[in-house]
């Protein structure tokens, strides 16, 4: 028996109403995300990746179709704190220490000081930032700031992590290291991760499932289940299996353009 999908989208459609007329951002998007999957969304700029993630997070409301998150509506899931969200920019408050930034959602949710301290210590350890609790964001590198923002999304221990191009602004070496760390974190926590990226190697390296999207209106052109093993050293990127999946992603992206 296959486990019940954590996220289930069926024929989602979303049209934004703007002053310049309607913008058809998503069309007929159907997808099942199984528990514990690492799903990447890849596609050209403006194809609706962020919009789809924002629908899952109940930050946008689809104009058609059905969406369930943890068996609830997206809105119920948001209120039940079913997910943590990591944005493109780290978005840390400069006047708060790293520890206080990570504690912020816990503070808002009314956790006791003791619970806050325990959780902050645990998630900072998970993202390899133990010892940086008292530092301010400006004292950390860009990669470390992004790790702190991942820690903040992990603070209340949601089963789902939604990540919108979290490493897009980082240089390649730092990005490689964070990719490795994210895989380790995913293996340790067994969370379900939805990850938006522009990078084919990043999508192939990280994912159990790669969702290829077409230009506007955003549709799913291919869902590739990765045959790569869970244990992935960075040099797996040089193997024929990896190159073959990357090739299929590229073909899917190209097909989307040519339709
Ligand atoms: N609030 C909004 N109002 C009107 N149009 C919007 C809104 N949000 C997004 N769009 C439009 O919807 C389309 C999809 O945008 P979205 O940000 O989801 O794309 P994306 O694939 O994430 O792009 P990128 O890779 O550049 O971040 C774009 O044409 C965008 O201009």
Automatic annotation (TrEMBL):
CDD domains noted in UniProt: ABC_NrtD_SsuB_transporters (cd03293)
GO MF annotations, alphabetized? ATP binding; ATP hydrolysis activity
Q: Does the keyword Transmembrane helix apply?
A: no
The species this protein was found in:
Pseudoponticoccus marisrubri
Q: Which SMART domains match?
A: AAA
Q: Which residue ranges does the record assign to the ABC transporter domain?
A: 9-236
This protein's name: Sulfonate ABC transporter ATP-binding protein
Which Gene3D superfamilies does the entry mention? Answer: P-loop containing nucleotide triphosphate hydrolases
Q: Which domain of life is it from?
A: Bacteria
Q: Which UniProt keywords apply?
A: ATP-binding, Nucleotide-binding, Transport
Coiled coil ranges (UniProt) are none
- PANTHER family hit by this protein: ALIPHATIC SULFONATES IMPORT ATP-BINDING PROTEIN SSUB, TAURINE IMPORT ATP-BINDING PROTEIN-RELATED
The record's family statement is: Belongs to the ABC transporter superfamily.
**What PROSITE patterns does its record include?**
ABC_TRANSPORTER_1, ABC_TRANSPORTER_2
């Amino acid at each position: 028996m296959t486990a019940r999908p954590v996220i289930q989208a069926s024929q989602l459609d979303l049209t934004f109403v703007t002053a310049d007329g309607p913008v058809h951002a998503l069309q007929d998007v159907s997808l099942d995300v199984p528990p514990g999957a690492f799903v990447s969304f890849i596609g050209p700029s403006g194809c609706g990746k962020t919009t789809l993630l924002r629908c899952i997070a109940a930050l946008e409301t689809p104009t058609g179709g059905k969406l369930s998150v943890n068996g609830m509506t997206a809105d119920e899931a948001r209120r039940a704190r079913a997910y943590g969200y990591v944005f493109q920019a780290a978005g840390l408050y400069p006047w708060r220490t790293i520890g206080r930034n990570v504690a912020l959602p816990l503070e808002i949710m009314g956790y006791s000081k003791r619970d806050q301290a325990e959780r902050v210590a645990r998630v900072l350890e998970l993202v390899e930032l133990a010892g940086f609790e008292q530092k301010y964001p400006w004292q950390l590198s860009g990669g470390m700031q992004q790790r702190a923002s991942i820690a903040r999304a992990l603070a209340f221990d949601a089963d789902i992590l939604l990540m919108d191009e979290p490493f897009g602004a980082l240089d390649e070496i730092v990005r490689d290291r964070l990719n490795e760390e994210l895989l380790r974190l995913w293996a340790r926590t067994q969370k379900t991760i939805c990850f938006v990226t522009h990078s084919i190697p990043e999508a192939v390296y990280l994912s159990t499932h790669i969702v290829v999207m077409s230009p506007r209106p955003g549709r799913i052109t291919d869902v590739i289940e990765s045959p790569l093993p869970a244990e992935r050293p960075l040099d797996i990127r040089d193997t024929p299996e990896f190159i073959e999946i990357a090739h299929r992603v590229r073909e899917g992206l190209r097909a989307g353009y040519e339709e």
